[in-house]
Structure formats: structure tokens, C-alpha cells
Specification:
Number of strands: 10
Radius of gyration: 18 Å
CATH class: Alpha Beta
Oligomer: single chain
Strand content: 15-25%
Distance between the termini: 37 Å
CATH architecture: Alpha-Beta Barrel
Strand order of the largest sheet: 1-2-3-4-5-6-7-10
Structural class: alpha/beta
CATH superfamily: Divalent-metal-dependent TIM barrel enzymes
Length: 277
């Protein structure tokens, strides 16, 4: 039933694996210390049932949901309906976002949205002028905010250093969602960021890029410039116990061919996690 939701090409790829062409590392192996998940932007070209089917096939059960699958202006009833779909598929939605916050109304909406979804984490991007107000909402709702870095084109938070500078003296429930691909494009080493900011590291977006500069493009994990061995060693050293969520952003003209790339990313990252203690 689940495979009927996937493309014919994806099903053929799965069949080839079953017939004796396995990934270098099992895509269902257990990580040590942190939970492996998926950032919902990965599924921007899939609907909810298709997204659930892919996660079931890859045995990944943790997700941060984006607004294209659950709009920010959803009623509480609609949010319950969407969350019930994921729960019925064995998927735990642990956070929402990335959510951009340009006004106080945006901040209010984000925290109400997270509360109605029953999650304890918002991955967000608040404007500098809203940080005081956002901190008030963190205290009011008891929901953590992980500010996401978006690379050199992001004038607010290009890398984790800029995030940390803005939250280091604020409520301890304000921290970072470290996007490792965007970090390295901003000239910041992801492994060093883990070591430097571990006390405020709430979430991870795991991706690879072709170059450690602003023109670097998304690519399957392990084919680019991110040193995942060093990253996992850093995670082990600081005892990181949050989520590492794969975010597959490679632009593939044939959208039906995205599934193998997602599986490759998961397999590679799990393989690295298996080999480093």
C-alpha cells in the first residue's frame, strides 16, 4: 500500500536494493545519543500521505513540520487533523518550522501554532527588533525557540555565531537550530559550532553542499564538502541528545527521482554515526 504512493522509479530503486544492491550502510541502523529525523522542507514536492510513506519505508519517525503541510493560519481543529495523520502513520512531529517572524503578530501566531500542535520546539527566524518580545513568549508558553541560520544571503543569521551572539544572554530556552550546510557556506565550521555552542544547540538540519562558499549548492550527504566524521565526533563529545534532521534540498528536475537522494542522505549519515563512538 505504501509503495503505491511513491514513484515508479522509487519503487524500482527499492526493489534493486532488496535484490542485492544495498546501500553502503543500512538506512535503518540506530544512531547513538541523538534521534534521526527529517526536516519537512525535504518533502516540499510530496503531500502528507506520500511523506509518511517515505518515512515509513526508511524507518524514520521524527519530523519538524513546515507550513505547506500545515498552514500557519490553520484552525486548532485543522492542526489536530494534520497531527493525527502523522500519529496514525507512526510519525512523531517534534517541532514546527522554519517560521519567519517579521512582526509581533507573526510571533504570536508561531507560538499559538506550536501550542495547538502540542510541540515544544519552534525552529524560527525572528527579526532582531522582535527578540525581546519573542523571549517574553518563550517564557509565557514554555516553548523553546531554535533560531535557524541560512547562509551568506541571510543578513540576520548567516551562521551559528550570529545566532549565538543574539541569544547567549537570553532565556536558556532560546537557542540554535544548526544548519550545517548553510553554516559552512557562511565560512563557519559545523563541528566547531557544535563544540562552541552545545549548551544552546536544540536542533540540527543535516545537509551537504558542493562548496564552502556562498555559491555552494545542495547535494547528497557525503558527496560535498561537509566533514561529517568531524561533525559526529563533535556531537559525541558534547553528548548531544537532540534531533539530527535530514534536509534534502538538491534541485532535481525530475521530482520523481528525489526519493533515492533522501535515502542516500539518511544511509550515509547513519553509516557515519554507526562507525564513530
Amino acid at each position: 500500500m505504501r509503495n503505491t504512493l511513491l514513484s515508479a522509479g522509487s519503487v524500482a530503486w527499492l526493489s534493486s536494493v532488496a535484490e542485492g544492491s544495498p546501500l553502503p550502510f543500512s538506512p535503518i541502523a540506530q544512531t547513538q545519543g541523538y534521534a534521526l529525523g527529517i526536516a519537512d522542507y525535504t518533502f516540499r514536492h510530496f503531500d502528507i500521505p506520500q511523506s509518511i510513506a517515505i518515512m515509513q519505508d526508511l524507518e524514520i519517525k521524527q519530523l519538524t513540520i513546515k507550513d505547506f503541510h500545515m498552514p500557519l493560519n490553520s484552525s486548532p481543529e485543522k492542526i489536530r487533523e494534520v497531527m493525527a495523520q502523522y500519529a496514525a502513520g507512526g510519525i512523531h512531529v517534534y517541532g514546527v518550522g522554519v517560521i519567519y517572524m517579521k512582526t509581533r503578530t507573526d510571533v504570536d501566531q508561531a507560538f499559538n501554532y506550536a501550542k495547538n500542535a502540542g510541540v515544544s520546539l519552534i525552529v524560527g527566524v525572528p527579526e532582531y527588533a522582535l527578540l525581546d518580545y519573542t523571549e517574553q513568549k518563550v517564557k509565557q508558553y514554555g516553548i523553546r525557540l531554535a533560531i535557524h541560520n541560512h547562509g551568506p544571503q541571510d543578513k540576520l543569521y548567516p551562521g551559528p555565531a550570529e545566532v549565538y551572539e543574539k541569544i547567549r544572554n537570553r532565556d536558556l530556552r532560546m537557542g540554535l537550530c544548526l544548519d550545517v550546510g548553510h553554516a559552512i557556506r557562511a565560512g563557519q565550521d559545523p563541528a566547531q559550532a557544535v563544540l562552541s555552542y552545545s549548551r544552546r544547540l536544540f536542533d540540527m538540519h543535516i545537509k551537504d553542499v558542493t562548496k564552502a562558499e556562498d555559491t555552494g549548492e545542495a547535494i547528497e550527504i557525503g558527496r560535498g564538502v561537509v566533514d561529517f566524521q568531524a561533525l559526529v565526533r563533535a556531537l559525541r563529545k558534547v553528548g548531544y541528545s537532540g534531533h539530527c534532521s535530514i534536509e534534502f534540498e538538491k534541485n532535481i528536475p525530475d521530482k520523481s527521482r528525489e526519493f533515492p537522494g533522501i535515502a542516500e542522505c539518511i544511509g550515509y549519515f547513519k553509516g557515519v554515526s554507526e562507525t564513530i563512538v
